[in-house]
Amino acid sequence: MKHQKNTLFLLLSLFAISVYNTGCNKDSADQTFVPSGKIVYAASTFNHTTLYAIDAEVGKKLWEYTVTNPNQPTQIYSSPTVANGFLYVASYSKRVYALDARTGAYKWEYQTGDTLMSTPMVANNVLFIGSGDRKVTALNAATGMLKWSYTTGGKIYGSPTIANGLVYCGALDGKVYANDTAKGTLKWSFQTNGMIYSSPAENNGVVYVGSFDGSLYALNALTGVKVWSYTTPAFIYSSPTVKDGVVYFGCFDKKLYAVNTATGSKKWEFPTGGVIGSSPVIDNGIIYFGSYDNKVYAVDLNGVQKWSFSTNDIVEASPVVVNGTVYITSKDHNVYALDAATGIQKWSYTTADIIGASPVVADTSANVWYSGISGHVQ
Predict the structure, then answer these.
(1) CA geometry: angle at 343 spanning 337 and 347, to 5°?
(2) How buried is residue 146: exposed, middle or buried, by Cβ count under 10 Å (0-12/13-18/19+)?
(3) Is residue 298 domain-resident?
(4) How far is residue 52 from each of residues 57, 76, 110, 359, measured CA to CA in Å?
(5) Domain annotation covers residue 335
(6) pLDDT tens-digit profile of 49-67?
(7) In this predicted structure, what is the pLDDT of residue 73?
(8) According to the model, what pLDDT value does residue 299 have?
C-alpha cells in the first residue's frame, strides 16, 4: 500500500477463523511519551487483535490497545495512520477507531457497512477510507462525523491516495475512481481487466496503479486517460512507488520491477524466492521491500542486491525507513528494526499474533513516516 497493505492470504484465511476476541482492554502501564522521541505503531491480528506502540530506538513496548467487538471478527489488516495527535486504525469489525497517539486512549469510532481492510488516510483534517461496503467515505478526523460517502461498483480493500484535490481508490470491480475530496463527486473512473487491491500512487500529474490483470497502469491524474500500461505475467498486488522518473512495484511472479515513467518500458527486474505483495520504499538510493520467501531485501537503483534479512515467515508488509533504520513486520509475529546500510538487526519485538500490515512511525514534532512513500516525511 502504498500505505498499509492488507493481505490476500488473510482474506482467504478468514473462512478458517473460529476464535474471536470477546474482551476489551488497553494496557496502559506506561503512557509517557517515548524517550527516543519516536514511536513505531504496529498491529497484530487473527486471535489477538492488538495495536502496539513501541519505542523506535530500543524496541520497548509503551502501551497496547486491544480492538474488540463481541460476536464479530476484529482482525486488523490495515496499517495505522497518525495525524494531528490522533492514531487511526481500521478493523475487520467494520469500524474505524481513533485513539490518542501518545497514550492510546480511546477517542471515537465510526461504523461502516462492511469489513475494513483499507488504511485510513488523512488530509486537511479529513479522514478518507475505502470499505467492503463499496464506499469511499470521508469523516471529520477530529470527531468521526460523516462528511460524505460515494458508492463504487466493488469492494475497496486498497488504501486511498489524496492529491490534486482528489481522492483516488481502486476497487474489486477493476476500476480506479477519482472523487472530489470536498464533496465526493466522481470526477472520473478507469476500467482495468482485473480486481484492484493495489493502492494508487500519484506523481507529477500521473496516477500509477496495479491490477490483477497483470498490468501496471499510468493514468492522467486529472482526466483518467491512460498514458501507458506495462504488462507482467502475474497479478499485481503490491502498490507502486515512484522516484526520479522510475516506478517500482512487486508482482506475484516473485519479481520487483522498475519501469520508466515516461515511456512505460522496463528498466530492470529483480527476482526473489516468493510472491511480492510488499510495496517498495526508497531511501538514500536504496529500495527496500519484503517477499513471501520470508526475506526483507535492499536493492540499489540498478537492481543490484545490497543485502537481505531472513525472518521466520512471510513478509507481506511494506517497510518504513527512518534515519538509517528499516522498520518492518513479519507474519512470524515480530516487528523488526534493521540497520538500513547493512541489514543487521537492531532489535525485534514479538507481538501476540501474526502481523500482515505495515508499521508507521511518528515523532514528537508531528512528523510521520509511512511505508511506500519513498521514505519521505508526510
Answers:
(1) 25
(2) exposed
(3) yes
(4) 15, 12, 21, 10
(5) yes
(6) 889 999 999 999 999 998 8
(7) 60
(8) 98
